[in-house]
Amino acid sequence: MKELKDGIRAHVRLDWTGRVHKRFRGTDADKRYATEVEVLKVLEERGCPYVPRLLEEYPEELYFVSSNCGQPANTISKDRADGLFADLERDYGIRHLDPEARNITYDAHAGRFCIIDFELAEILPRPAQNA
Questions:
Q1: How many alpha carbons fall within 13 Å on the CB side of residue 46?
Q2: What range defines the domain where residue 87 resides?
Q3: What average pLDDT score do residues 75-103 get?
Q4: I want to staple 120 with a disulfide (CB 3.0 to 4.6 A). Which of 62, 64, 70, 97 is the partner?
Q5: Is the CB of residue 51 less than 8 Å from the CB of residue 87?
Q6: Which helix or strand (DSSP H or E) is residue 65 part of?
Q7: Using 50, 70 and 90 to split pLDDT, how confident is the model at 3?
Q8: What is the pLDDT of residue 2?
Q9: How far apart are CA 102 and CA 72, in angstroms?
């Protein structure tokens, strides 16, 4: 597997099929894991097309597998990133609590920017137009 991130809060790897494996560690790992899993499930239920899909979950290990959303979008402007996070909140009722460009990827297959890393996020009521 290819290492994507090996930090104090998470170990993230990419397998040979392109799936993302994320294991939580460090402070509040259990809470961050639960938040990200719950947010990904809500986003799938609400039909958001530009976030990872949860494929497997292992709560006892604080570990899950998700779909891949492309490569880091290192050159995205702050204004464009801010707009993506605002769209996510307005259209899908998820407030990303770490709205930084490092949490934006570009998926060449989908031809669009995506948002990742929902361990710090808040689920808001479902927007009326998406009910």
A1: 25
A2: 2-130
A3: 97
A4: 97
A5: no
A6: strand 63-66
A7: confident
A8: 78
A9: 7
- DSSP string of 35-49, one letter each residue: HHHHHHHHHHHTT-S
Q: pLDDT value at position 130? A: 58
Q: Give every CB contact of residue 86 below 8 A, 6+ residues apart in sequence.
A: none
DSSP secondary structure letter of residue 79: H
The mean-pLDDT minimum among 1-5, 45-49, 78-82, 92-96 falls in 1-5
Report residue 98 as tokens: 């770490």
Non-local (6+) Cβ contacts of 3 within 8 A are 12, 13
Q: Beta strand pairing status for 71-72 and 112-115?
A: unpaired
Please give the single-letter amino acid code of residue 88.
L
- Where do we find the tokens 């259209």? 91
The amino acid that residue 110 corresponds to is A
Number of independent structural domains in the chain: 1
pTM of the model: 0.93
Give per-residue pLDDT as tens, 67-88. 999 999 999 999 999 999 999 9
